[in-house]
Amino acid sequence: MTLFKSTSLSLCLAASGLLFAHTAQAQAAKPAAAPAATASAAAPSAELSKQAEGQLAAAGWLSMLDRGNWGGAYEASSQTFRNMVQIGQWMDSIPGVRAPFGAFESRTASTVVYKTTLPGRADGEYVTAIFDSHFADKKDVEELVTTVREADGQWRVIGYQPR
Fold it and tell me: What are the b/e assignments for 113-133, b being 16+ CB within 10 Å?
């Protein structure tokens, strides 16, 4: 069974996979929750705050997907994401991407990485969060979500890749 009905959405999700490739090296080394004693040494508090904000935006966006609120998730995505994927493509494809998972059960952030550069993207502020997610029909799904801080200061999703 194919997870992607639309080639355009597949290409978009594949392109957003490029966003994650650059952060893959840092993912294993940087857990989502660092002990308080090492957090200040590992990253300045401002960076930790940005990681938390980006992670929160990613989790909120994923909760829209969990509820089947495809349109809400699309509208809450970054302008870049919406420029890459048209609303019709999204609405036709995302239900088929998520359907094989079944009902949402639980999700835990395993890794959160803050970056100011990503390949193929303008310099900015990006947070990639990897969530270990469990669904009724598929217990072990890794969901990679990259958020970007847009000009209005809000964190919005720029890439999503379940695997």
Answer: bbbeebeebeeebbbbbbbeb
| 87 pLDDT more than 80 | yes
Instruction: State which CATH number among 2.102.10.10, 3.10.450.100, 3.40.50.720, 2.30.30.60 fits the domain covering 7-34+43-162.
Output: 3.10.450.100
Provide the CB-side half-sphere exposure for 122 (13 A, CA): 6
Contact 58, 157 (CB under 8 A): yes
Alpha-carbon gap, residue 136 to 86, rounded angstroms: 29
99-154, pLDDT tens digit by residue?
999 999 999 999 999 999 998 889 999 999 999 999 999 999 999 999 999 999 99
